[in-house]
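Suppose you are handed only two things: the residues of a chain and a line of SMILES describing 2-acetamido-2-deoxy-beta-D-glucopyranose. What would the bound structure be? This form records exactly that question and the answer produced for it, so the two can be stored side by side and reused later without any lookup.

QUESTION INPUTS
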Amino acid sequence: LICTGWSDAQYCNYSKQLTAKKDLFEHLGLDKNDSQNNRMWPIIFTFTPLYIFVDLYVTSIINVDEKAQSLTTQVEVLTEWPNWNMEWDLNTFCGIRKVVAPKNMFWAPDIGIMESIRTEFGTKDSPNVLLFHYGRTVSVDSLSLTTACKMDLYRFPFDTQRCNLTFQSTAYSMQEIILRQMSDQPFINHFSKELFQAEGEWELLSINYSKNTLFRDIEFDQLIYQITIKRRPLLYVINIIVPVFFFLLLDVASFFIDTNGEDKLSFKVTLLLSISVMLLILSNTLPSTAEKIPLIGIYCCAVFCLIGISIVEIILVNYLKAKGAKKSSVETTSTVSGQDGDIKNQQNPPDSVRDQNEEQSYTIELLKQIIIECQAATQRKQRQRTFLSLTSVARIIDVAFLVIYLITTTVFLSVLGKLWIPY
Ligand SMILES: *[C@@H]1O[C@H](CO)[C@@H](O)[C@H](O)[C@H]1NC(C)=O
Ligand SMILES: *[C@@H]1O[C@H](CO)[C@@H](O)[C@H](O)[C@H]1NC(C)=O
Ligand SMILES: *[C@@H]1O[C@H](CO)[C@@H](O)[C@H](O)[C@H]1NC(C)=O
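ANSWER OUTPUT
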C-alpha cells in the first residue's frame, strides 16, 4: 500500500516495513557516495559472458528523408543486464522487489546503435535505473533516433523500406557481452503497433530481429532490428501521377483540335511547362542516386519527351501545310493570269479577214493554241499534284504519328504499371 514493490504483510510487520528501505539502501551501498563496488564489472570473478537483453519499440516515425537517406524515429529501448553485486533477499527486506536508483552509480553496458547519425533523448535522459532483487538492472530510454537507412526508391511512391537498427557494444567483445532480445517477435510487433502514434505518411509493417557477429580485430555480438515501413502513396498519386497522366491525355486530345496549327502548338507548349513544374517538385524529393532511376522519374521524363516529340511533329506538319498553301496561292494567281491571256487570244481571231489561206493558218494557229493549252493544263495538273502531295503528306504524317503515339503511350503505360505496382 505504501509503495509498489512493497510487499505483503507476510514478510514482516509494520515497524520493520518503515525501516526496510533504508536498510536495503545501506545493504546495497547506495547511501555511500563512494560506490566503487557498484561501478565495477558486474561479474568480474567469472569468465562467462554477460547476457544483455534488449527490447526495441518504435513509437512513431518522425521523418523519412529520401535525399539524405535517413530515418528519424521515436523509439523506446529497454536494456536489461545482470549485476550480481546488487542482489538482495526478499524476506530480509520486507519483500521489496525493486528499487529505483541513480543511473550514474552503476556500471552500464555501452550499447550503441551503429547506424545512428544523431541520438537525442526523446523526453529526458532518464537519470534512474531499476534494480530488481534477483540481481538485474533495467534501463528504460525514450530516444529520438536519426539513423542512416539505405532506401530503394525504384517504386516510389509505392515503396516499402527496410531500415536496420544494429545494437552493439562499442568496447566489449563477444567473449564479454552477448546481446539477446527480451521479448519475442509477435509481442514486439503487437506492442509497437499499439504504441505507434502518428498516422502519417508511413505505416509500420513489422519489426524483425536477427543476430549477427561483426568480425573486426575482435568479434562483436550484434542484435539487428529491421523495421519495415510502407509509404501511403495517395498524396503523390494525387499530386504528381494523376496530373501528369491527364497532361498526356490532353496531349493526345489536342490532335483533334480543329484549327490552325498555332493554337495546337501553344496548347502543347503549355502542357510541357506544366510537366516541368512536376519535374521540379520531384527533384526536390528524390535523391540523385545513380543506382536505379525511380520509375516516377522515368514516367514524368517519358511523358515530357512524348509531348516534346509531338510538338516537333506539329511544327513539321505546320511547315508542310504552310509551304503547300504558299505554292497553291502562287499557282492560282498564275492560272488566273493565263486564262485571261487565253480569252484575249480567243477573242482576237473572229476579227481577222476570212480568207481561205488565212482560215487554214487560223486553224493551224488554233491547233497550236490547243496544244499549248494542253501543255499548260498538264503542267498545272503537275503543279497541283505537288501542292496536293505536300498537304496530303502533312495529313498522312499527322494520322500516322497519332497512331504511333497512341500505341507507344499504351505500351509504355502498361509496362510501367506492371513494374511499378506489384499487385
Ligand atoms: C516485528 O518483527 C521484529 C522481528 O522481525 C520484532 O523484533 C519486532 O518486535 C516486531 N514488532 C512488532 C510490533 O511485532
Ligand atoms: C539489415 O539486416 C539484415 C539482416 O537482418 C541484412 O541481411 C541486411 O543486409 C541489412 N541491411 C543493411 C543495409 O545493412
Ligand atoms: C517479420 O515479421 C513479420 C511478423 O512477425 C513476418 O510476417 C515477416 O515475414 C518477417 N519478415 C522478415 C523479413 O523476416
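WHAT STANDS OUT: The pocket of 2-acetamido-2-deoxy-beta-D-glucopyranose (ligand 1) is lined by residues 12-13, 15-16 (CB under 6 Å). The chain is about 45% helix and 25% strand.
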